[in-house]
């Protein structure tokens, strides 16, 4: 593989590293720098990868302006048995980036042209500075300044890192006037940001059956709460055939997690509109505010080019292992869902993931049970609710009284279990009290 407009090889760590990184920060697609590979694309390795990685992070943190923290990854990789370093650089939103010691001059600003990093003409520097996004959440002053960050400190300590007295500066939670910015507000222990997870009966927004609000605290806590809630909703459907037992979740768990994280990290919070999550019988919709970042096309978006809208939030999510690598989220989603699942508008991005289709895989001898097999473990049901579900699967016209007699409990207890099964989406009554029970997602239930 040879050098391209997005790939740079360096045999060893040199004084020109910042120049190459700045060129990619100023380039609309970002890029990747490999340390330990020569210009012919042959791996030669680095003698001390751990030491070099620390030096790289420190140099990029202190020698480049505006801050590029959250816009790069430093990764150790193995190439033909040799250890090399991979630096993934995203396109920045605060162009032009420059060497601090030279400022916004042709000596300090660089741009990627072909396979080279060239000095940026002063006219381009002035034009980029004029377009620089000033209304970012890092520059917006928090309307509350008496903020606390105990939750954030706990999350960092869980990763083995203790935040010191300068954490607000280091994590870019202060604006130019040394006041808490909107990033700090979103990450503080108490705020007015509410994240909604709604659940509807059917395929429209007419019948809301559950509305959960997470937030009013650290965005990290809200993210973890939404991840846990959606994980609970992502039930396992078990199909029992005459030959085997097959288990499938409603949605691909990896893709779903990436989509949720993407919605939190890349949401445009400048208009105080948080991401929202909606669950329907046939799909889940994840909507974030803000269209595609400026200068990023849909094709580049799907190819994984990263232009973080909120680099400060991205940086913290990476610190806390909620994000793995820049630009990896969308390609992971596309491994399970097509591009058609994404809908772009000027002000929003919506990801729609359909419930797994299993009808075409089922024949008359098959049995499909949501949440687990008959007699098996159904994660969110009590033992009594599992028993009721088993009985209904055996006889979909059975009465409350008959269920009570079979289980040797009173009818009021049966009614409570039935209501729980309906609320959790396992069953519904078709045709009134003299109708029959429908087991959701079941195509044909085997009599046992």
Can you walk through the features of this model?
The chain is α+β, with helices and mostly antiparallel strands and 448 residues long. The chain has 3 domains: 7-131, 2-Layer Sandwich (Methyltransferase, Cobalt-precorrin-4 Transmethylase, Domain 2), CATH 3.30.950; 194-354, Heat Shock Protein 90 (2-Layer Sandwich), CATH 3.30.565.60; 363-439, Arc Repressor Mutant, subunit A (Orthogonal Bundle), CATH 1.10.10. Helix content is 31%, strand content 21%. It has helices at 17-26, 49-63, 122-131, 150-158, 167-170, 182-187, 219-233, 253-266, 298-303, 311-319, 329-334, 383-394, 400-407, 411-423, and strands spanning 7-10, 31-35, 64-65, 72-79, 82-89, 98-99, 110-113, 116-119, 194-200, 208-215, 236-240, 245-249, 276-279, 283-289, 342-344, 348-354, 367-370, 427-430, 436-439. Helix 7 (219-233) packs antiparallel against helix 8 (253-266). The longest helix is centred in the N-terminal third of the chain and has 15 residues, at 49-63. It is elongated and about 85 Å long. The N and C termini lie far apart (60 Å).
The percent range for strand residues is 15-25%
| Structural Rg | 27 Å
Q: How many independent structural domains?
A: 3
Based on secondary structure, the structural category is alpha+beta
Strand order of the largest sheet: 10-9-13-14-16-15
Number of helices: 14
Our measurement of the CA-to-CA distance between the termini, rounded to an integer number of angstroms, reads 60 Å
CATH architecture of the largest domain: 2-Layer Sandwich
Q: Regarding CATH, which class of the largest domain?
A: Alpha Beta
Mean pLDDT over the full residue set? 85
Residues in helices, as a percent range? 25-40%
């Amino acid at each position: 593989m040879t050098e391209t407009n997005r790939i740079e090889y360096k045999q060893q760590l040199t004084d020109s590293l910042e120049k190459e990184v700045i060129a990619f920060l100023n380039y609309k697609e970002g890029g990747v720098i490999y340390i330990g590979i020569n210009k012919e694309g042959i791996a030669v390795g680095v003698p001390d990868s751990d030491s070099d990685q620390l030096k790289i992070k420190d140099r990029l943190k202190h020698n480049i302006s505006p801050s590029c923290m959250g816009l790069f990854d430093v990764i150790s990789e193995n190439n033909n048995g040799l250890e090399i370093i991979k630096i993934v650089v995203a396109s920045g939103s605060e162009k032009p980036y420059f060497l601090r010691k030279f400022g916004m001059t042709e000596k300090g600003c660089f741009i990627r042209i072909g396979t080279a990093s060239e000095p940026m003409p002063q006219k381009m520097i002035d034009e980029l500075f004029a377009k620089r996004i000033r209304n970012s959440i890092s520059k917006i002053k928090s309307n509350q300044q008496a903020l606390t960050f105990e939750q954030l400190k706990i999350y960092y300590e869980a990763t083995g890192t203790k935040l010191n007295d300068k954490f607000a500066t280091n994590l870019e939670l202060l604006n130019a006037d040394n006041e808490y910015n909107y990033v700090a507000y979103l990450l503080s222990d108490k705020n007015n940001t509410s994240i909604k997870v709604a659940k509807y009966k059917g395929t429209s927004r007419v019948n809301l059956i559950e509305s959960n609000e997470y937030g009013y605290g650290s965005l990290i806590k809200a993210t973890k709460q939404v991840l846990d809630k959606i994980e609970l909703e992502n039930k396992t459907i078990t199909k029992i055939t005459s030959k085997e037992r097959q288990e499938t979740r409603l949605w691909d768990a990896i893709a779903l997690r990436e989509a949720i994280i993407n919605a939190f990290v890349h949401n445009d919070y400048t208009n105080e509109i948080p991401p929202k999550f909606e669950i329907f019988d046939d799909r889940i919709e994840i909507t974030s505010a803000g269209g595609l970042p400026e200068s990023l096309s849909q094709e580049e978006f799907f190819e994984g080019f990263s232009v973080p809208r909120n680099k400060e939030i991205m940086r913290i999510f990476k610190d806390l292992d909620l994000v793995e690598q820049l630009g990896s989220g969308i390609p992971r989603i596309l491994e399970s869902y097509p591009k058609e699942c994404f809908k772009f508008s000027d002000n929003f991005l919506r990801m729609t993931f359909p419930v797994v289709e299993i009808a075409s895989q089922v024949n008359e001898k098959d049995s499909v049970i949501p949440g687990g097999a008959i007699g098996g473990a159904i994660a969110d049901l009590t033992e009594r609710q599992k028993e009721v579900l088993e009985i209904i699967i055996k006889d979909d016209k059975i009465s409350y009284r008959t269920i009570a007699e079979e289980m040797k409990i009173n009818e009021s207890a049966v009614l409570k279990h039935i209501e729980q099964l309906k609320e959790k989406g396992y069953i519904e009554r078709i045709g009134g009290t003299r109708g029959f029970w429908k087991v959701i997602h079941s195509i044909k239930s085997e009599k046992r």
